[in-house]
Design brief:
Structural class: mainly alpha
Largest sheet: 3 strands, antiparallel
Number of strands: 3
Distance between the termini: 55 Å
Radius of gyration: 22 Å
Strand content: 5-15%
Strand order of the largest sheet: 1-2-3
Oligomer: single chain
Length: 118
Amino acid sequence: MVTTQGDDEGILITEDGRVEFTAEGREFHTAYFGYAGIDIRTIKTEDDLKRAGRAAFPYLFAFMAQRLRKRPQTLETRALLAIVEGDSETADRTYRQLLTRQRLQVITAASDAPPAQP
């Protein structure tokens, strides 16, 4: 039996419509569907997966915000969190900080030494 990969890299759908999760997919989807009150063990078919996806979708942003808060709070993470939470002021400020950081050049030579040649 040939399995094909679904849209999500952690989900495999067999030719007969059964759903299988990779180890990474099981970890993520157990948490995501569980956040929405759905037991991943009840997802056996592609139709079950579609129903679970529709039922869990309203919880997606809250779930992603929860996961982002657990990560190291880099500028990138803070920008994503602001977007997910709909905080446009923080998203704009963080975006400007990212642009500034991108323009900065790191100087490694001593202040009296000539600049390094590329």
